[in-house]
Amino acid sequence: MHDVPLWLWMVFAVTVLVSLAVDLLAHRRAHVIGFKEAAAWSAVWVGLAVVFGLTVFLVVGTTAGVEYTTAWLLEKSLSVDNLFVFALIFGYFKVPRAYQHRVLFFGVLGALVFRGVFLAAGVAVVSRFTAVLFVFAAVLFYSTYKILKEEDDSFDPGRSVAVRLLRKVVPVQDDYAGHHFFVRQAGRRVATPLLAVVAAIEAADLVFAVDSVPAVLAVSSDTFIVYTSNAFAILGLRALYFMLAGLLDRFHYLSKGLALILAFIGVKLILQASHKTISTAVPEIPSLLSLAVIATVLTVSIALSLLRPPPGTGTAPQEGQRTHKNT
Asked: pLDDT of 131-146, one tens digit each?
């Protein structure tokens, strides 16, 4: 565990809250977000993550800084498949483009809470039962196998547990009512499809956490490192989605790159667990090497995708198409 001063936790919390407030105010009027606006916001989120990482380097130390950077880059890369699912969900529910940012905003809020809970639980379990890292490694290897064999399950947003539970708790009307989540209908409160979309987004994030949490715990078991890196990666997802919407299929080699990253992290977990439970003679993979491997694989995957575009490149997946859900 790193010696993280309380004021740095407070700086992180204030940064996230202020950023979310500014983002919400900037998008209080529903409108279609274009490439330039999305690119500008994406630069803001990446800039915040980098500045915070530099702060970690200076305040907590080089090791913590490398771990934060590695974890953030890892989570950023693994979150790419979220973008495909966002496109699938928006297509399934036929969400007007002007309301998509509002949905993702509240989806991010939920993700920040749920990831915090899962990561805290993961850190607690790993600190007491190191052998669980072998289980986490198995999960990552299984995900790698499914990606390489292209055996991902179809994801049906309308049949997700969260959406079905929502429909049992509150009636959901068929038509949208602007950017509102609830309306009054015959004197009673009724949800709009927009709330069902948020529920589907949250359900998807819970599925992605199955891979995300074990992967980041291979980089660090420090609560501060794993949560702050996750948070900054999640915060930039909305802008990244709107910036790459319609171009996602061009990065066709990225899924293979993510599979290699997951396999590498799985090996790292096994060595880490073996070092702690079997023999200290078993070497561990240093965080700096992990950072180099992840950065290299991502760069090569993106470069190959751009240099060798798939034939008949289309747009992001629409309703009924298959997509990864375990990456």
From this structure: 888 988 898 898 888 8
What secondary structure, in 3-state letters, does 41-98 show? HHHHHHHHHHHHHHHHHHHCCHHHHHHHHHHHHHHHHHCHHHHHHHHHHHHHHCCCHH
Question: What is the residue whose two structure tokens read 């429909």?
Answer: 167
For range 290-306, the mean pLDDT = 89
Tokens of 2: 């790193």
How far CA 111 is from CA of 34, 69, 117, in Å, comes to 24, 20, 10
Q: Do 315 and 244 form a contact (C-beta atoms < 8 A)?
A: no
- Lookup result for tokens 């291979």: 218
- Residues 327 and 307: their CA atoms lie apart, in Å, by 24
Q: Record the tokens describing residue 263, joined without a space.
A: 């396999």
Burial of 59 (0-12, 13-18, 19+ CB in 10 A): middle
- Encode 205-220: b = buried (16+ Cβ within 10 Å), e = exposed: bbbbbbbbbbbbbbbb
Rg (CA), the chain: 20
Tell me: pLDDT of 252 over 50: yes
Higher pLDDT, 320 or 42: 42
* End-to-end C-alpha distance for the chain, whole angstroms: 28
- C-alpha 231/C-alpha 233 separation (Å) is 5
Kindly list the distances between the CA atom of residue 47 and the CA atoms of 70, 106, 114, 233, 243, in Å, as whole numbers in the listed order: 16, 22, 24, 11, 16
pLDDT tens digit sequence for 146-198 = 878 875 555 566 666 778 888 888 888 888 888 888 888 877 888 888 888 88
Kindly report, residue by residue over 201-247, the tens digit of the pLDDT.
888 888 778 778 888 888 888 999 999 999 999 998 888 888 877 66
